[in-house]
Design goal:
With 129 residues, this protein is an alpha+beta fold. It contains two helices and six strands. A hairpin with a 4-residue loop joins strand 5 and strand 6.
Length: 129
C-alpha cells in the first residue's frame, strides 16, 4: 500500500481504537505522510515511508493481493509505542497485511517503528519521530 493510502488507513483504524483520544494528519514539513496520535494521554508522531513491490512503477498502482492476515496480539498502550501500534494494526486482521516487524524488539535497537509487509510485495515503514 502506498504511503498516502496507508496513512489514511491508519487514521481510520486509529480513530476507532480504544484508548485513542485524537488522530490528525501532518501536512507539509520535513515528514511527509505523517500523523499524530494521542493515546492514553500521550502524543506520538509517526511517518509512513513506502517501498514498492519488486518491478512495480510509481505511476501504476500495485494490485492488492489478499492472504492470511498477520497473526498478532494487542500490546498495552503504556508499553513500547511501536509494539502498541503493531498490535493495533495486527489485530485489525487486514487480509493485505502479511507480517509486521517491530523495531524495538530487535537486538541493538536504535529507533522505534515497524515494518509492515504486504502480500503484494510492498512494504510500509512506520517510524516514530
Amino acid at each position: 500500500m502506498r504511503p498516502l493510502e496507508y496513512r489514511d488507513y491508519l487514521v481510520d483504524l486509529l480513530k476507532n481504537t480504544p484508548d485513542v483520544q485524537r488522530v490528525d494528519t501532518i501536512e507539509g514539513g520535513p515528514h511527509p505522510y505523517a500523523l499524530t496520535v494521542t493515546a492514553a494521554g500521550s502524543e506520538q508522531r509517526w511517518q509512513i515511508i513506502g517501498q514498492l513491490a519488486e518491478g512495480a512503477k510509481h505511476d501504476i498502482p500495485t494490485p492488492a493481493v489478499h492472504g492470511q492476515p498477520a497473526a498478532w496480539q494487542a500490546a498495552p498502550v503504556g508499553g513500547a509505542p511501536d509494539a502498541w501500534l503493531a498490535g493495533v494494526i495486527g489485530t485489525a486482521d487486514s487480509p493485505g497485511t502479511k507480517r509486521i516487524d517491530v523495531w524495538s524488539t530487535r537486538e541493538g535497537k536504535t529507533s522505534e517503528g515497524l515494518t509492515v509487509f504486504f502480500h503484494n510485495g510492498e512494504r510500509a515503514f512506520v517510524r516514530k519521530f
